Amino acid sequence: HGGEDAVGSQAIARAEVHAGPLPQREQAMIQAYRTFTQGNPGEARRIYETLLAKNPEDVDAWYGLGDAWFHDDSIAIPARFTASLRAFKRALVLDPGYALAFDHANFILGRAARPHPPWVLLPGDSIAMLGDGKRRSVDSLAEVQAVARARNESVTLAREWANLQPEIPKAHGALL
Protein backbone atom coordinates (compact mmCIF):
# COMPACT_ATOMS: atom_id res chain seq x y z
CA HIS A 1 0.00 0.00 0.00
CA GLY A 2 1.11 3.56 -0.47
CA GLY A 3 2.79 5.19 -3.43
CA GLU A 4 6.31 4.22 -2.30
CA ASP A 5 5.70 0.47 -1.98
CA ALA A 6 8.49 -1.04 -4.14
CA VAL A 7 7.38 -4.64 -3.60
CA GLY A 8 3.80 -3.72 -4.48
CA SER A 9 4.95 -1.82 -7.56
CA GLN A 10 6.94 -4.82 -8.77
CA ALA A 11 4.04 -7.17 -8.13
CA ILE A 12 1.56 -4.93 -9.91
CA ALA A 13 3.91 -4.62 -12.90
CA ARG A 14 4.01 -8.43 -13.13
CA ALA A 15 0.23 -8.59 -12.74
CA GLU A 16 -0.21 -6.13 -15.63
CA VAL A 17 1.82 -8.39 -17.91
CA HIS A 18 -0.63 -11.23 -17.25
CA ALA A 19 -3.85 -9.20 -16.92
CA GLY A 20 -5.17 -9.79 -20.44
CA PRO A 21 -7.15 -12.98 -19.81
CA LEU A 22 -8.41 -11.86 -16.39
CA PRO A 23 -12.01 -10.79 -15.79
CA GLN A 24 -12.76 -7.08 -16.14
CA ARG A 25 -13.00 -6.54 -12.38
CA GLU A 26 -9.50 -7.92 -11.76
CA GLN A 27 -8.10 -5.86 -14.64
CA ALA A 28 -9.67 -2.76 -13.11
CA MET A 29 -8.21 -3.59 -9.68
CA ILE A 30 -4.76 -3.92 -11.23
CA GLN A 31 -5.21 -0.65 -13.12
CA ALA A 32 -6.42 1.16 -9.99
CA TYR A 33 -3.50 0.00 -7.88
CA ARG A 34 -0.98 0.77 -10.62
CA THR A 35 -2.46 4.24 -11.02
CA PHE A 36 -2.23 4.71 -7.26
CA THR A 37 1.40 3.57 -7.05
CA GLN A 38 2.26 5.91 -9.92
CA GLY A 39 1.11 8.85 -7.81
CA ASN A 40 -2.41 9.45 -9.05
CA PRO A 41 -4.71 8.58 -6.14
CA GLY A 42 -7.56 10.65 -7.59
CA GLU A 43 -7.73 8.48 -10.71
CA ALA A 44 -7.36 5.36 -8.57
CA ARG A 45 -10.37 6.50 -6.50
CA ARG A 46 -12.36 7.00 -9.69
CA ILE A 47 -11.63 3.40 -10.76
CA TYR A 48 -12.49 2.01 -7.31
CA GLU A 49 -15.71 4.05 -7.25
CA THR A 50 -16.64 2.65 -10.67
CA LEU A 51 -16.10 -0.87 -9.33
CA LEU A 52 -18.21 -0.08 -6.26
CA ALA A 53 -21.01 1.30 -8.41
CA LYS A 54 -21.14 -2.13 -10.07
CA ASN A 55 -20.71 -4.08 -6.82
CA PRO A 56 -21.09 -2.23 -3.51
CA GLU A 57 -20.01 -5.41 -1.68
CA ASP A 58 -16.52 -5.45 -3.22
CA VAL A 59 -14.33 -5.44 -0.12
CA ASP A 60 -11.09 -5.03 -2.07
CA ALA A 61 -12.46 -1.96 -3.86
CA TRP A 62 -13.56 -0.47 -0.52
CA TYR A 63 -10.08 -1.06 0.87
CA GLY A 64 -8.43 0.39 -2.24
CA LEU A 65 -10.69 3.43 -2.09
CA GLY A 66 -9.81 3.95 1.56
CA ASP A 67 -6.12 3.53 0.84
CA ALA A 68 -6.22 6.01 -2.06
CA TRP A 69 -7.90 8.58 0.20
CA PHE A 70 -5.57 7.83 3.13
CA HIS A 71 -2.37 8.43 1.17
CA ASP A 72 -3.46 11.46 -0.89
CA ASP A 73 -1.42 14.26 0.64
CA SER A 74 -2.90 16.76 -1.82
CA ILE A 75 -6.18 16.68 0.14
CA ALA A 76 -6.55 18.19 3.60
CA ILE A 77 -6.60 15.71 6.48
CA PRO A 78 -10.25 16.17 7.48
CA ALA A 79 -11.63 15.32 4.04
CA ARG A 80 -9.22 12.52 3.23
CA PHE A 81 -9.33 10.83 6.64
CA THR A 82 -13.12 11.10 6.83
CA ALA A 83 -13.51 9.40 3.45
CA SER A 84 -10.73 6.95 4.23
CA LEU A 85 -12.11 5.93 7.64
CA ARG A 86 -15.59 5.39 6.20
CA ALA A 87 -14.21 3.22 3.39
CA PHE A 88 -12.05 1.15 5.76
CA LYS A 89 -14.97 0.64 8.13
CA ARG A 90 -17.12 -0.52 5.21
CA ALA A 91 -14.38 -2.99 4.20
CA LEU A 92 -14.32 -4.31 7.78
CA VAL A 93 -18.09 -4.75 7.81
CA LEU A 94 -17.80 -6.82 4.63
CA ASP A 95 -14.71 -8.72 5.80
CA PRO A 96 -14.02 -8.47 9.54
CA GLY A 97 -10.54 -9.93 9.04
CA TYR A 98 -9.19 -7.36 6.58
CA ALA A 99 -5.90 -6.59 8.39
CA LEU A 100 -4.79 -3.65 6.26
CA ALA A 101 -8.07 -1.86 6.89
CA PHE A 102 -7.62 -2.40 10.64
CA ASP A 103 -4.17 -0.89 10.52
CA HIS A 104 -5.19 2.26 8.65
CA ALA A 105 -8.43 2.84 10.58
CA ASN A 106 -6.57 2.39 13.84
CA PHE A 107 -4.00 4.97 12.78
CA ILE A 108 -6.75 7.56 12.25
CA LEU A 109 -8.63 6.65 15.41
CA GLY A 110 -5.49 6.28 17.52
CA ARG A 111 -4.34 9.82 16.73
CA ALA A 112 -7.83 11.14 17.51
CA ALA A 113 -7.78 9.26 20.84
CA ARG A 114 -4.72 11.06 22.20
CA PRO A 115 -5.11 13.50 25.10
CA HIS A 116 -4.39 16.50 22.83
CA PRO A 117 -5.12 15.09 19.38
CA PRO A 118 -4.21 16.71 16.08
CA TRP A 119 -7.74 15.94 14.85
CA VAL A 120 -10.98 14.82 16.42
CA LEU A 121 -13.54 12.17 15.59
CA LEU A 122 -16.98 13.70 15.23
CA PRO A 123 -20.26 11.78 14.96
CA GLY A 124 -20.75 10.02 11.65
CA ASP A 125 -17.05 9.16 11.37
CA SER A 126 -16.18 12.71 10.40
CA ILE A 127 -12.70 14.01 11.11
CA ALA A 128 -12.03 17.66 11.99
CA MET A 129 -8.78 19.38 12.79
CA LEU A 130 -8.72 20.52 16.37
CA GLY A 131 -7.40 23.96 15.57
CA ASP A 132 -4.30 26.00 16.10
CA GLY A 133 -4.98 27.14 19.66
CA LYS A 134 -6.39 30.48 18.52
CA ARG A 135 -9.27 29.14 16.47
CA ARG A 136 -10.70 25.81 17.53
CA SER A 137 -13.00 23.70 15.39
CA VAL A 138 -14.66 22.29 18.52
CA ASP A 139 -15.05 23.56 22.07
CA SER A 140 -13.34 21.85 25.00
CA LEU A 141 -16.39 19.75 25.94
CA ALA A 142 -16.79 18.55 22.35
CA GLU A 143 -13.07 17.74 22.30
CA VAL A 144 -13.36 15.60 25.44
CA GLN A 145 -16.35 13.78 23.93
CA ALA A 146 -14.54 13.32 20.61
CA VAL A 147 -11.42 11.91 22.30
CA ALA A 148 -13.56 9.49 24.33
CA ARG A 149 -15.43 8.44 21.16
CA ALA A 150 -12.16 7.86 19.30
CA ARG A 151 -10.64 6.00 22.24
CA ASN A 152 -13.65 3.68 22.51
CA GLU A 153 -13.68 2.99 18.79
CA SER A 154 -9.91 2.54 18.63
CA VAL A 155 -9.86 0.06 21.52
CA THR A 156 -12.86 -1.85 20.14
CA LEU A 157 -11.26 -2.04 16.70
CA ALA A 158 -7.88 -3.10 18.13
CA ARG A 159 -9.52 -5.83 20.23
CA GLU A 160 -11.38 -7.14 17.19
CA TRP A 161 -8.14 -7.12 15.20
CA ALA A 162 -6.13 -8.87 17.96
CA ASN A 163 -8.88 -11.47 18.43
CA LEU A 164 -9.16 -12.18 14.71
CA GLN A 165 -5.42 -12.17 14.06
CA PRO A 166 -3.63 -12.94 17.32
CA GLU A 167 -0.37 -13.66 15.49
CA ILE A 168 -0.09 -10.06 14.20
CA PRO A 169 2.09 -7.99 16.59
CA LYS A 170 0.74 -4.74 15.15
CA ALA A 171 -2.76 -5.74 16.26
CA HIS A 172 -1.60 -6.06 19.85
CA GLY A 173 0.40 -2.86 19.55
CA ALA A 174 -2.76 -1.04 18.52
CA LEU A 175 -4.21 -1.87 21.94
CA LEU A 176 -1.37 0.01 23.60
Identify the notable features of this structure and list them briefly.
single chain; 176 residues; mainly alpha; two-stranded antiparallel ribbon; 8 helices; 5% strand
Furnish the topology, listing elements before pairings.
Blueprint: H1 6-17, H2 24-37, H3 41-54, H4 59-70, H5 77-94, H6 99-112, E1 119-122, E2 126-129, H7 140-164, H8 169-175
Antiparallel strand pairs: 1-2
Helix pairs in contact: 1-2, 2-3, 2-4, 3-4, 4-5, 5-6, 6-7, 7-8
Describe the model.
It is globular, with a radius of gyration of 17 Å. With 176 residues, it is mostly helical. Strand 1 (119-122) and strand 2 form a beta hairpin. Strands 1-2 form a two-stranded antiparallel sheet. It is built from 8 helices and 2 strands; from the N terminus they run ααααααββαα.
Percent strand? under 5%
Number of helices: 8
The percent of residues in helical segments reads 55-70%
Radius of gyration: 17 Å
Mean pLDDT over the residues: 88
Q: Given the helix and strand composition, which structural class is it? A: mainly alpha
Low-confidence stretches: none
> How would a textbook summarize the main sheet?
2 strands, antiparallel
Strand order of the largest sheet: 1-2
Annotation, overall tally of beta strands: 2
Give a short synopsis of this structure:
β1 and β2 (126-129) form a beta hairpin.
